[in-house]
DNA sequence: AATATGATGTAA
DNA sequence: TACATCATATTC
């Protein structure tokens, strides 16, 4: 219980890690208090081969260079004014990552409501990649930190009963990659984000 | 220095 | 279905 996943957990292939992250719990500590959310939806981004990935074709910029670094490091970036949370995977020089798309609140739900605003109780509190970062208090400040230590880390959790697999969301401009089945979610979980 | 563009959220 | 809104990346 509350066992922090070790560095070696992140050294597996990106597709299996995306699958194995389901059911694990994301923890964030801040001076406002701590929040915990169960990961219920993820997407894999396979670097060089994947047109939808920021690192497609080896593209390396100040933002994406972190994907080329060691696994287990947090990659946050801003999209349409929302912060999105990823974890670098595989090994050094393989620029792949897993996007966390949805969580189910486990602890600190009142703090999540406070951060999201009073009108956001219920599933809409954390059922999307931009929503969960706001609820958890995750920002660009987390960029480059290891997910194996405070203030933002991932702990073990109960195995999910059933897993579903499908196409990723919001990448219609990514050619062939649009239809790759790289999205994973816990079957039937009500916090899974809607498809676009 | 200027502009184009989203791995989205929300309201209508 | 439309649009708000901003950090990055790319272009000028």
Automatic annotation (TrEMBL):
Concerning Gene3D superfamilies, the annotation shows: Methylpurine-DNA glycosylase (MPG) (3.10.300.10)
Is DNA damage one of the keywords UniProt gives this record?
yes
Q: What sort of enzyme, by top EC class, is this? A: hydrolase
An example Gene Ontology molecular-function term: hydrolase activity, acting on glycosyl bonds
Mind listing the UniProt keywords for this protein, alphabetically?
DNA damage, DNA repair, Glycosidase, Hydrolase
Look up keyword DNA damage and say if it applies: yes
Which InterPro entries does the protein's record reference? Formyl_transferase-like_C_sf, MPG, MPG_sf
Enzyme nomenclature, EC number: 3.2.2.-
Q: Where is the signal peptide?
A: none
- HAMAP family recorded: 3MGH
Q: Which family does it belong to?
A: Belongs to the DNA glycosylase MPG family.
PANTHER family registered for this protein in UniProt: DNA-3-METHYLADENINE GLYCOSYLASE
Protein name according to UniProt = Putative 3-methyladenine DNA glycosylase
């Amino acid at each position: 219980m509350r066992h922090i996943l070790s560095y070696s957990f992140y050294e597996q292939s990106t597709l299996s890690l995306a699958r194995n992250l389901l059911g694990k719990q994301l923890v964030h500590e801040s001076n406002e208090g701590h929040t915990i959310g169960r990961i219920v939806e993820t997407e894999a981004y396979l670097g060089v081969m994947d047109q939808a990935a920021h690192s497609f074709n080896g593209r390396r910029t100040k933002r994406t260079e972190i994907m080329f670094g060691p696994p287990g490091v947090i990659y946050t970036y801003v999209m349409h004014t929302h912060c999105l949370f990823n974890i670098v995977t595989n090994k050094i020089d393989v620029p792949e990552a897993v996007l966390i798309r949805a969580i189910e609140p486990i602890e600190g739900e009142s703090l999540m409501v406070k951060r999201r605003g009073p009108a956001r109780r219920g599933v809409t509190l954390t059922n999307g990649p931009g929503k969960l970062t706001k609820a958890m208090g995750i920002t660009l400040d987390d960029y480059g930190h290891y997910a194996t230590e405070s203030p933002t880390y991932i702990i073990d959790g109960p195995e999910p009963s059933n897993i579903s697999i499908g196409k990723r969301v919001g990448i219609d401009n990514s050619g062939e990659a649009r239809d790759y089945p790289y999205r994973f979610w816990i079957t039937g979980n009500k916090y899974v984000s809607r498809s676009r």
